[in-house]
Amino acid sequence: MTPNSQLDLLFDPSLIPSTIQEQLGPDLHLRPLASDDHKRGHFDVLSVLTAAPSLSPKAYKENFDELKACAQTYFIIVIVDVASDKIMGSGSVIVERKFLRAAGLVGHIEDIAVSKAVQGKKLGLRIINALEEIGRVRGCYKIILDCSEKNIPFYEKCGFKHKEFEMVRYM
Ligand code: ACO
Fold first, then answer.
1. Most CB within 10 Å of its CB: which of 66, 86, 139, 144?
2. What is the dihedral of CA 76, 106, 136, 47, to 10 degrees?
3. How far is residue 110's CA from residue 147's CA, in Å, rounded to a whole number?
């Protein structure tokens, strides 16, 4: 595993609760996305979710830098297998500033993905717990997400409730 100190991280790792790292144990490392995580299988993990064609290292870094420049907005976390230095799971919370609710903040959970080989071992739950805590510490008054019907039981286990409907128009 590459130590945090040698990585260009998307956000301050102290925002990730140490209790969740303890629950994961010493073989898995939970940290913010790093600017060179393309080489640790980030796209392989994302591909369990949807089409995720890999970017060149240069394009990956440019995208990373663009997200990082939006201060206190993009929080992408990864779970890395320490022995292989490969990403096993990933997820994001995007913090949106509103005018309503006294310029309140809403967290949007997106792109939760756990490598097929390690699904069912609570990695998804730990990712959601960590993202929720990041949102809470940042001051979000709620956290929302869209999911397919088959994932509703997973999110209910994570403490979410069904509300509203999603609409979409592809461009
Ligand atoms: N149906 C019913 N229960 C489920 C399901 C499911 N599809 N998935 C997980 N659970 C339950 C587990 O049994 C467990 O329950 P328990 O506490 O009683 O044992 C609990 O939810 C936690 O499950 P985890 O082990 O943490 O789940 P996992 O690590 O496999 O992650 C995830 C779940 C993220 C859905 C994973 O299966 C995955 O990557 N799927 C493919 C990609 C995907 O669909 N991502 C979500 C897209 S929605 C979004 O990104 C906002």
1. 86
2. -30
3. 9
Q: Torsions phi, psi of 78, nearest 5?
A: -135, 150
Cα Rg, the chain, nearest whole Å: 16
What's the pLDDT score for residue 5? 85
Whether residue 100 is predicted with pLDDT greater than 90 in this model: the reply is: yes
Q: Ligand 1, from 88, 108, 123, 151: best to mutate by most atoms within 8 Å of Cβ?
A: 151
Which single residue is written with the structure tokens 């979409």?
168
Confirm whether pTM is higher than 0.95. yes
Q: 54 with 43: CB under 8 angstroms? A: yes
Tokens matching residue 143: 């956290």
Closest CA to 73 of 139, 129, 123, 166: 139
